[in-house]
Amino acid sequence: MTHTPDPDLATLFDRARELQPIEPVTVKDSTGNAIVVLPVPKSHVIADLTAQFEQQRDFPLRKRGRLIVETMDSFVVHTQRHRNDATTIYVTPSPGRLSVITAIYNDNQGTHGPAGHRDFSAAWPIQHHETYAGWVKACSGRLKHEEFAQLIHQFGFGLVPVPDWNFVPDAEIEQLANQLGLTITPFDLAWAIQTATSPMAPPLNPSADSETTTLSDDGGADKPLMTTFLLADANVVINTHPNLSREQQADHLRMAMLRRMLAGIKFSSPHRIHEISRHIAINADKGIESQYNPKTGSQRLTCGDIVKDNLPEWFLVYSPIFKGTPAILLPFQLNYHTQNKSLTIGIRFPNQDQLEHGQLETLTGLLAERLSGDGDDIPMIFGRSDVSV
After folding, report:
1. Which of 26, 82, 214, 299 could form a disulfide with 222 if both were Cys (CB 3.0 to 4.6 A apart)?
2. Domain annotation for the chain: domains and CATH numbers
């Protein structure tokens, strides 16, 4: 075959047929569409000349390739540069591991649109924030006393004092309530609003949840949801928002009760957590014993002649989940175990998967806002794109 400076595909095929004539055959598929088939003898080798052909051109035939970016800014810049009608963004949650957001620029289009090659994309692996990752990693197993002290030394800056729950935004109250399993039945809310509005309302018929709703499944300060608290808060809501509908008043009452329930959990201060950490580290060689104190309902540590009572059970960390998302309050629970005068500490972070999925939705919302300024919104789908990162 002679070399031509700027060949096209038809010329290449014609030259190849001149060297070894192979006649194409036209067949029909199951839908009746004609397909051209080129039978290749066993003595021949099939060669894809696309790469060689594109090297002879100033530009490739079409865009292709995969890019991995590290920040939202880079993802936005790249997507704004290459977005088109065939662009789709896939959000693939992977709680506890690496979630990925992928933009495919030549995706399959709608019902009447053409199919896409799906080989031109940008992927953004969502990195966990260092503080959050450090605390969650500590939840994977029990820590020796020196490991716990090292953890507090390394990530203790994320510990925050117990806030005044009245000043915490509703969204964070909802997030904490979901994590800790705090629930209030709609029946209880409706009864409280009705009773506060009309003194002649019938007495509360306690349901399975009305007098036994607890602050958490297995820790903190388990207290019943008292009827008197419901009525007291219902009166405050009605007096403060008299013109709202019953449903809106019930929403306000629900948030007031969630705040009251959070206030009933014995969250410890950062000072208390640091104090226990130092105490354990200094006195570990004396042998540590843990006992339950029935008077306070908490555990106590005994190191020689030193006794530490009311051990911390819950504490709060203020940290983003993912890089690029706002910091939020995160509840962690401590539990203590002693064996042969050796102490290990377990850290529990409830409902991690649910929280990460919710924060990924928040991050996706922020991304959608960044991309909404350039024409039509890009379709975003929660699922796996089948395009490897």
Report:
1. 214
2. 9-55 (no CATH), 65-128+357-382 (3.30.720), 140-161+267-348 (no CATH), 165-263 (no CATH)
